[in-house]
Amino acid sequence: MQGLIDIEPKQYLDFAAEEGKLGQTTLTVFNLTSNQLSFKIKTANPMLFQVKPSIGIIAPNNQVSIVITTAQPLKENGNLNSKFQINACTLLQDEQDLTNFWKSVDAALIQQVQVRSRIKPVEVQQEIMPQQIQQSVISENSDMMNLLYQSIVDPKSREQDEEIQRYQEQIDQMTKELSDYQLILRSVKQQQAAIKHLGNKFELNQVLIIGAISIVLGFIFGN
């Protein structure tokens, strides 16, 4: 029987070897049908692995995550080449006792998928970390660019920019008017100084003329 389930990962269950820690990984089983399925996980080395859950039900077009943990810490140079078998079968009715169900089910109705386990090399983990950091930086830069774009196209932001521009134009106009006023004031002062200077010269000429006339008249009358 084929086509009931799919699994991820498909070939290897990778267990990270960390000093003093148990190895752990997750196997995802997908129900590819519109029927309710039952699954059962078997391992060639049940003393080394804990599978939770090892038996259960998957709803139609749904999935289940199975956590597999080693019973003891792993060594980087150790061997973990164990085989897991995932069995799946359609449930035509609600089953209260799945253990008895799997004991009596027809083998022709079972789909079987196999996957192996292995220790994940430390250098692979170290190579992945910079990629994750790089992706995080790219994501943060993308978020910042999106915020910047939103601030540019935001109507409120545009209104504020337009208001600032109007204020700036008013300030420029007032500055120009002040400069023109200062030029006019300087010209008026220059004209006042010129008029005063000309006034002084005019009075002096008058005095000289009057003096000359007096001399002439005195000379005439004296004679």
Automatic annotation (TrEMBL):
Subcellular location per the Swiss-Prot or TrEMBL entry = Membrane
Residue stretches spanning the membrane: 204-222
Give me the Gene Ontology terms describing cellular component.
endoplasmic reticulum membrane; plasma membrane
Organism field: Paramecium octaurelia
Tell me the ranges covered by the MSP domain, including all copies.
4-120
- What membrane topology does the UniProt entry give? Single-pass type IV membrane protein
InterPro entries under this entry? Answer: MSP_dom, VAP
GO-annotated biological processes: endoplasmic reticulum membrane organization; endoplasmic reticulum-plasma membrane tethering
Query: Which Pfam families does the record match to this protein?
Result: Motile_Sperm
Alphabetized, the UniProt keywords read: Coiled coil, Membrane, Transmembrane, Transmembrane helix
User: Where in this chain does the entry annotate a coiled-coil region?
Assistant: 157-191
Record's protein name: MSP domain-containing protein
